[in-house]
Specification:
single chain; 179 residues; alpha/beta; 5 strands; 16% strand
Length: 179
């Protein structure tokens, strides 16, 4: 769904399992867009869904995410952003459509992938000294990777097992047709 007056604006969701590098890649794509002089905004979707408790039947607070994305993306677009870089997770085609409608501009989805042992090392570093959080994230990384394999919500995939953040971001930007 396109929002009137924003016909030259586009959104890119960087999707993938926990620990794969979604937020890091989104921030780096934002840096490349800034270097290229492209008006943009970077949105961490986890922050836009973060409230407690989540309503029954909405384990990851997707309804709140959609409400917030609708408002925040509209504000950025009204302020002149031409590219919206989103870091977050969608698990099924219906969620992709709902997110695209909430963003209000054409949405491309890039899935980041990495080898499980690399993701597990990243998560161990992130959750050092937090054994319960680490266990949950390790379990969720495998579960979510399987869900994303089945759902095929992505337009293209980028491997983050190796390579610098800058190289991965440049590849994502090029595949999206933005850089």
């Amino acid at each position: 769904m396109r929002v009137d007056g924003h016909g030259d604006a586009y959104a890119l969701l960087i999707n993938g399992t926990v620990g794969v590098g979604k937020t890091t890649a989104a921030e780096a794509v934002g840096d490349l867009l800034a270097d290229a002089g492209v008006s943009h905004a970077v949105l961490d979707l986890d922050r836009l869904r973060q409230s407690w408790p989540a309503p029954p039947g909405d384990r990851f607070n997707f309804g709140m995410l959609l409400r917030n994305v609708r408002s925040v993306s509209g504000n950025y677009l009204d302020a002149g952003a031409k590219r919206l870089v989103l870091a977050g997770v969608i698990e099924q085609q219906g969620e992709r459509k709902q997110l695209a409608d909430a963003v209000g501009v054409d949405l491309t989805v890039c899935r980041l992938r990495a080898e499980h042992d690399v993701i597990h090392r990243r998560l161990a570093g992130r959750h050092d000294g937090e054994p319960d959080a680490l266990r949950w994230h390790l379990d969720r990384s495998v579960e979510l990777d399987r869900i994303l394999d089945r759902s095929a919500v992505d337009d293209f995939t980028v491997d983050t097992t190796t390579g610098s953040v800058a190289d991965i971001a440049a590849f994502v930007g090029k595949r999206a047709g933005w850089l």
